[in-house]
Amino acid sequence: MTGRTGLFLAYGLPDAVLAGRPADAVAAAGRAEAAGVHALLLGDRPAARPGRPAPPAAIVTASVLAVRTRRIGLVVDAAPAYHEPYNLARMVASLDHVSAGRAGWRVVTGADPEADANHRREGADPVDGRAAREAEFVPLLRDLWDTWEDGAFVHEKDTGRFIDPGRVRVLDHRGPALRVRGPLNLVRPPQGHPVVLAPADHPVLAREADVLLAGSPEAAAAADRPVLATVTPFVAGTEAGAQELHARAGAPRSDADAAVLVGDGPSVARRLLAWADRASLHGFALRFPQPEGVEAFTALALPALRAAGGLVDGHGPATLRGHLGLARPENRIVARLTAAGTERSRPR
């Protein structure tokens, strides 16, 4: 990680936007990108919600947004309990390709009885071995993304040679919970590995993630990689207006999962900067219960953050890793073969 010069901001768009017309989601993403926001967090829970429809699958929405935006990162939720590793590796790598290096995967963990009930089959229950599957899942996806070395797709039209087979690896993974042969059927993603985000307090996944997602910034702690704390902002032109918005939303209170922040633009910006400085945070994942909250934060708090020098230029790098100051990772398979002395020399 390189040192940051301002905050990284990721917007969690409200369900009311994502479940509406696709044009509304595209417009919201475009406004966020134009305002310099660095990423969108697209939730995905494979279970029905009482009284309302859920948004379309996050990977589908992200793919639509990928072709209508140019710089903003696109992070999709997916739980190891409900996906096969080969297929999820394929989908996230595909998003990285169609977005030209802007894909991220937020690893969803923990019990979800309603979603569990939708994913049982003979001999397989998401409840059984959940922890073992989660522990094995992220390293396995990284290996699948590395089954194609950089440069494996040679695309020599004159000779009709399109692939260097010596640079495509069979993985043959056989772990305690998962078995995958590989290779993946896609070339290595533009970012090498799409960015992996995981809960900061997860005993295993936190070690495997590129970015740690903390709950309330009051309890967040610095780490050896970017940490994003979670905040639900209610912003208006005046303190009284912000309090009214908060009350209309049911007056949610801060808890371990997220801090609730109520105020005008400058006061919200000052509080975010104070939290970031205290805990050496890289930035924030912002939750917006209502669509108007997105627009108010963008119009009132973002300018105050920018004026205070507290916002990384979202118009700079064009990849999600670039926005986060993360390097493109080396190929893990090649590194292991090289370390073992079994990698063949190759003319350059």
Automatic annotation (TrEMBL):
Domain of life: Bacteria
Pfam families: Bac_luciferase (PF00296)
Protein family per UniProt: Belongs to the NtaA/SnaA/DszA monooxygenase family.
InterPro entries, alphabetized: Diverse_substr_monoxygenases (IPR051260), Luciferase-like_dom (IPR011251), Luciferase-like_sf (IPR036661), NTA_MOA (IPR016215)
Keyword Calcium in annotation: no
Protein name as it appears in the record: Luciferase-like domain-containing protein
Annotated keywords: Flavoprotein, FMN, Monooxygenase, Oxidoreductase
Span of domain Luciferase-like: 6-222
Keyword Flavoprotein: yes
